[in-house]
Task: structure prediction
Amino acid sequence: MTRTVERAGLITAQLLAVAALLMAWQALIASGTLNSFSFGSSLATWDRLRQWLSDGTLLANASTTVFEAATGWTIGIVIGTVVGMAVGLSSLLSRLTAPFFAFWTGFPRLAFFPFFTLLFGFTVGARIVSVVFVIVFLVITQTAVGVREVDRLLVANTRFLGGGRLDLVREVYLPASVAWIISSARFTVAFALHAAILAEFIGATRGIGYLTVLGQGQLNVSMVWAAVICVVVLAVLVDLTLVRIQSYLTRWMPR
Amino acid sequence: MQAQATLRAALRRPRRLKSGRPSRALWPLAQASLFLLLVVVWQLVAISNPILTIELSTPVKVAEQLRDWLSLDGWGHVWTTISTALAGLVVGTALACLAIAVLTSSRLLRAFMAPFIVVLNAIPRIALAPLFILWFGIDERAGVAFVVVITFFVVFVNLFTGIEQIEPLLLMNARTLGASRLWLLREVYIPSVLVWLLASLRNTVALSLLGAVVAELIAGSSGLGYLMGQGSSSGDSAEVIGAALIVAAVTLLATGLIDAAERRLLAWKGTAR
Result:
């Protein structure tokens, strides 16, 4: 009984805190204590958000960003899983390529987007390639590790029953890789989103990153706040969806 | 049972390569040859097509660019990025420790802040970069502030999970034996925090360098990220690749140092935990 009361009390307190913060922000702006130029006003931010929602800007730009991130993520996962499995299955390859992958992990992949603009111009393709570049090495290393950690008995049994390399891949490693992809999805998708938004900061004409930079260029802090809120909502929504999908897909697993 | 044990033993036996045991020195040699092979392929592909030469740049041009930088004014840029990353790292970590110290004092406070922390953690920090540039201008301070925010969240979340993972039985036992809060702080919390800090330092350092480079890339007037941006706008791939390589080298150096320090400092840990 007290637990529910405590929970209800907490949620009320949290909502009140948020409301108080917003009101304090607005009051400080109105009274001139806080410079509205530097901090933006919550009313202006709210107006901007409503405008974006009603005239479809939000939907159009958000879907661009999501499209770039999703496409890049899918391609990156496919390439990464294939390469990662090849590397993981062959001890020769994994020892040979270990320092290369260590190098690429320390490489500033997120910041390397300018290189892809030199190759592909300021296009959606360049952004997607950038997303792929950012996540592919994560997926490769993680898949390689996953391959090594697959239950040896499973592998041995498959071999016992006459399975060759191909059967092993099809019956043991591929299903296992699906499990790794799912478990790491929250992480890799977050990275993909980061990469897409960052790529939109430079030379884009659509996307939520573009909206942020637009506000920055116009010295309009309220617009930047509005864009940031959109990014936050998008990220949280994507994360929640992934958690749901993850628990649905692994519902057969013992907890 | 017996069959499974034999099977496991068989799997554990080291596999012999068909051509006999290669020496240990062969691996670095093979890796170096692979690297050289890739560089040569890059050079050949790049010079085969004049467009590709410009877009991909050649290893030779990148080497020349690096030589130019490192013999003249490149060091200034390197130092800017490193100092921005370092300053942000230190301040961000300190703030995170402070926030954790405040939060550990009250379970109610922790429960109150929990959803806010989840939301704040879900913010793609990258998206905040333009905000900082608006506030601080095209200046190192924007970069430092950006890195502070990035490191704060990463370290804070790491420490938060670390604190929660302190063996509650340990705490209960200590309290039963009459341990005061101060004692707990000194003997349990702080060592735990230090261990977690060190463990996450590798990632945090790499992240702070990346954050500094990103901030400089978007709007900076100096630093390695700025050089990348310059290369991008002047269409010079050699600059972009060269600057990225320097960042990679610095990151690897920093992580290497941290690994060495970790081995030294955590030698006492052994395999007990």
Q: What stands out?
A: Chain A touches chain B through 52 residues (CB under 8 Å). The two ends of chain A are 27 Å apart (CA to CA).
